[in-house]
Structures are given as structure tokens and as C-alpha cells.
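Its record is quoted verbatim for completeness.
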Amino acid sequence: MTVHGSEEWLNGFMGVMVMESRIVVQNSSFYGGRDGVYTHLAHGLVVRDNYFEGMRFGTHEMYTSNALVEDNVAVDTNIGVVVMTRPTGNALVGNEVRASEAGISVAGSASYVAGNVLVDNGYGMDVVSRSSYYVRNVLVRNDVGARASSIIPTNRIHHNDFAGNDRYVVAVIGPLRVWTGDEGGNYWEGAPGRDADGDGVLDRSFQPTGAVDSRIDRVAGAPTLARSPAVAALRGLQDVVPGLRGTGVVDNRPLSRPVRPAAVNETQR
């Protein structure tokens, strides 16, 4: 189906409202209005292969768990896909969000956010959830690649590609979050360091929210400063005494090359 809503979302309403129902919304297009698909206690919902443009939220989940939001495209929204309140077990896979204020925002816990492409947004990804898994997402040319909003550092975030964002990551008040997996961390375009042994991991940790590392790809001289003996000594001390690290994000094993190079190249074109 095709749904045409109001040009101004404040004057409109939902394209599809799903309340306490387990349905599939598939192969449809939504233009304008308030939200394309709005859900309330719609556990097990599937939203797949849809197109959203020019609205507040593309897919808006409220109190909805164990839902699948897959292979949708959202353009010119406030948020492409947003999961609110205290849900659990949602999967957001293979979606593409462009030219929006935020790409994906996930609250609740134990969700799976994988394979999404987030380009030219204000925030690519807003990490609000707890104990969730963020992997193989491509975040390119956003004002901010990701925002670490949860104050509980229990999410697993690794093997994502950050390229061409004005800022890699911003973090609200809270502990230091470690975004590294067992087989490596994330790809940060411009991150200093060498892969001397060819294992695909740089020999230097990376702090995308740090005073120096956060400016690596946009301030002249920052790469040289990042390799200076003084900075190396301070980082070495912080590695030995982690309590000296401030709030923010650190990747202990940054990747030397993109996880999804074809997707990164395509978005950059």
C-alpha cells in the first residue's frame, strides 16, 4: 500500500497504528504524516521492505518487544527507526536511513542492531539501550556517528564502520564505555597506528571521544600530536590504571580496514 500523510507532521497522524497486534507491514510506502508505522504492545511485529519519507518517525515502537524491523529505507525524518520505553529482544537489521535528524535510536535491552547504513544524518546511531549488540553498521558523513547515551556500559559495540563523520562519537555523563569485541573493535577512518603484524587490528587503542583522537581527521596537526611521546606516555599510564580515564568511549583494538568496504565506498560516492 501507499500512504500519503500531511506535509507538516504536527498536523498529521500515523500511517499505520498497530496496538496489541502481531502483524506484518511490508512492501509499502509512507509519505508525510506523523509516524509511518506506530506500535504499542505489538510484540512480534514485522516491519520489512518499506519506504518512509518526510515525517517525524519512520518506524516508532512503544512498549513493543521481539519485533523485527528489516530492510526499510527512511529519508528526511526526525528519526528513521526509534524503539522507546522498556522493550527487549528487538532486531533492527539492514535498514538504511539518510538525511534525517537521527538514524536509529534504540532503548530497552537485549536488542540486535546489525547491518544498517546510516548516512548524512545528525546522529547516525543513538545508543540508549542496555545489553544490546551493535555490529556491522555503516555510519558515514553524519554530524555525529554515534551518541553513547546509556550510562550503563553493558552494550557490545564492535565491527562497525565510522567514516567521514564530523565527530566520531559523543558521550553523555557516565562511565568509560569499551567498544571492543573478542576479535577486534570498530573501524575509525583516520585512526592513527599501524597494523604491524597484519592481523587487521591497529597497534594503538583509539579514543573517539578523547581530546586528541576525536580531532584526528579534522584538525591539522592532530595526527602528529597523537603519536607524540607525551600522549603515548599518558595513554600508557591510563592503560595501566584505567581509573585515570575519563568518561567517553575507547576502542582497545581498532580495526585497520572497513568491515564492509563496499558499503562504505558506495555511501561515500
